[in-house]
Amino acid sequence: MIGRMMSGLPVFRTEGVTKVYGSGAARVQALRGVDLALDEGEMVVLLGQSGSGKSTLMNILGALDTPTAGRVFFRDRELTRASDAALTSFRRDHVGFVFQFYNLVPSLTARENVALVTEIAAKPMRPEEALERAGLPDRMDHFPAELSGGEQQRVAIARAIAKRPDVLLCDEPTGALDSKTGVRVLEALVDINAELGTATTLITHNVAIRKIAHRVIFLADGRVADVVENAERLAPSEVSW
Amino acid sequence: MSAITRKLLRDLRRIWAQSLAIALVLACGVTVLIVSHGSISTLTGTRDAYYERQRFADVFASATRAPERLGEQIGALDGVSQVETRIARHVVLDMEDMAEPGMALVKSLPDSGEPALNIPLLRSGALPDPLEPDEVAVSEPFAEAHGLIPGDRFRAILGGQARDLRVSGTMLSPEHIYSIGPGAIMPDDRRFGVIWMGRPAAAAAFDLDGAFNDVAVALTPGARAEPVIAALDELLARYGGTGAHGREGQVSHAMLQHELDQFAALAVIMPPVFFLVSAFLVNMVLSRLIAQERQQIGLLKAVGYSTGRVAAHYLMMSAGIGVAGVAIGWGAGVLLTGGITAMLAEFFRFPFLVRQISPAAFALSGALAVATVLLGALRAVWGSVRLRPAVAMSPPAPAKFSRGAVDRLGAALRLRQTTMMILRSITRWPGRAAVTLFGVSASVAVLVASFFFFDAIEVMLDEMFNQSNRQHMTLRLSEPRGDAATLAAAALPGVLRAEGAFSMPVRLSVGPREELMRMEARGDDAELLRVLDADGRSVDIPTGGIAIPERMAAELGLSVGARVTVEFLAPPRETHALPVTTLTRQSLGEEIYIDAGTLFGLMRQAPQVNRINLMVDDAALGDFYRAVTDTPAISGVMLVTETRDQFNAQIEENLFTMVFFYATLGILITVGVTYNAARIQLSERAHELASLRVLGFTRGEVAYVLVGELALLSLLAVPVGWWLGYGFAALTAQGLSTEFAEIPLVVSRATYGWATLIVLAAAAGSVLAVRRRLDRIDIVTALKQKE
Ligand SMILES: Nc1ncnc2c1ncn2[C@@H]1O[C@H](COP(=O)(O)OP(=O)(O)O)[C@@H](O)[C@H]1O
Ligand SMILES: [Mg+2]
Predict the structure, then answer these.
(1) Assembly ipTM
(2) How far is the C-alpha of B707 from the C-alpha of B674, rounded, in Å?
(3) For chain A, which terminus, N or C, has the lower number of CB atoms within 10 Å?
(4) B555 lies in which domain range?
């Protein structure tokens, strides 16, 4: 068990990140100056009410979107200055994503959905291994439509970790699941964080889940409202909602 | 196989019906290109091979009577490699299986048997024995039409004498690929044939001992035809020469060329139109198909696929559709080319077919088709692929609808909300609606433009037979006679009205351009043969001038009042400068008309006739025909009414094939457009439509939202299609008009009606097919889908 490593340099660091959608009457300020740092191997829960800017922040960290102002660093690289090609290879090599809606390719089986990533990653694990780690050792040859929501989410997690990413960004991965299935998914994430040391950011609006993290960042109205270290973590099975 | 490739194949399989619809539309363009080029190259190749094997001559001339030794002088002309002198005469046949007289062209064969030029191809039996005066070979189509086989006998009037001729064999000739009688407008194998007999027998029958009246010449390789034509003309002028001409003046060759030109015109007009239409459709369908893949595009980019790689993936998907379209198009093209050329080969009596479709046609159509899909896809792919992954993955923001004219209209008319959904959808995505509208109207246009041919032909026939040639039949005299001949004809049994006319070959010169044409002299009192002016009104030709066809005037840059040089190619061979006084409308053929008084004044002769136009009482036809057969002065009878009926039948058969072909294309386009539009609508709006069901709408009401929009667009597309179709018909009419046939631009209501009916039926069919899917849609699944 590698656990949480406290090295000197954070994986992610943001400086005054703001994001504005639209203009004129339709103008929405989703982020209003976010400064934060996420450490290597750390499991962080990003908590906040719906509309507080969690997804926006995560998309910016994962280079799926760009901030309106401010700077984002991945280790010592400034993402906000990188080219499109550099961002693509950043995503390919370092980040895994898990979304609330599993975003699987419907025409590919579970195994193939994972292979979609392993085929282009630098040092991937086998799709089977990824699926096992995600807690889905059987049903590998089923198509998404033949899997339950929880199973689909675990395929998505397998797909995210198969490239051995440095960070895993999960946006409400349990949002569409019942609590029992949700616990399974969280277990998979905690195990992966512990075994592989993958820095994990978990977005949720579910307060109970915060207990499984090393650290909890509260987001409100596009700003970091509070940061709390969990002195004691709970296992996902001890959490219920 | 990599996962992304597997995704590609499975996606193609999932959307196979839509892909097939696109591929079929694309295949249409490919097919048209292959068929038109294939038909042209097959016919041209076949003709050229046939000409070469049977040594088709280069220059031809006729005279009244030229001494045999002139042949040697002709052979000595610069540029002449071979000469074939012969006797050629039109005669009347008295066939047992026909009440009316038939006609034949008698041609002499040299004593040696096979001629050196225009070698007939023996199909059955043997060449006639030159020493047997009654032995002849006949053209195969004629023999087949009468069931004649070697050994059979039939009667012909040769030089005023009825003779029993024995068939020694049947032949085909490169001079009669298009086997057409004098003055006829289409082949009629029953009423016209070619008869080959030994030279001595022909000479005896037509009193041409030691003389010839027809000559064919082959040029030395590389020699120009013009000087030879001029020299030959000069040599024959003293002997009643009617003007030497090259292959372009040889009837069979010219008609065949005319047909090929029409194919070439179609090859230029049709494929671009089809490619344009299919490019448009493919573009629309692909871009919407790819727009639906937006989220997957975002995902692929999120997991680290590069923009280029994702773009390549979707381009490959489109290329797959393109390749399928090309394959189908090539297959259908080859099959159809085979069918069409076989049909034409039978019509033209080619003894064999050299099937060929140039690799260039395949390459060109393939490249065009693939480029069409790739271009269509590129635009769509580019739009989606450039989006930032987060934007691509999030569902497109709910479309912004705004209140406008439609809403006021809806409120005023108290329209139902489902109707409002239809109207808003159209006004919200006008581009999308425009594409559907364009697709459907293009199909209407294609159908209007193909059915238009029936309308054009009907007008042409009406002009030809009801307006200008109102006689039942025309008698041809073997040589010009005085006016008394008309009176004699009027006295034949059953004749109700007889009008004499005079026809002669002339050479028309305007600046450097020369045209060999026929000039028809017409008396003012003629009621049967009428001349129509450019507006279609019957007019008399003013004395002192000539009337020329409008189309020819435009081509030569002539207008009323211009002077042209007319050389009479009959004795006395004189040249006159005459003013153009009238422009005429002639759908079929091209003749110059002159007032009879003016012509004979110029010729300083008493009026003559060599044609007599007749109205004959049907009841007396039997007696009439017997009298005609017994009159030596008559060298032929043209049955105008019969020709019209036959022409109708023939045209309808050929046109039917062509129209069927284009109608199929039109239907394919409609189905391709409407089916795809409906399918895409269905998947784009599945969530919305399912919500309606949850709210308690019936299946029918929900279907109305989907079907209503397409129905409305299809209806709007119809008048646009009429308008486009008219333009398309104008283009085709112009492209296909030649000196033989001027295609009038007339589109009937029936044409518009049928085109509309067919397209709307095809649209309804394909939309209903999609409606069945809508009925089976699972509400829960549709609702679970993220919006
Ligand atoms: N593409 C977008 N266009 C306009 N506004 C957006 C867009 N995405 C998010 N927003 C707005 O930004 C704010 C933050 O959204 P988001 O980051 O999705 O919140 P969360 O994930 O915390 O629920 C919300 O008010 C949301 O409406
Ligand atoms: Mg969110």
Answers:
(1) 0.71
(2) 10
(3) N
(4) 495-616
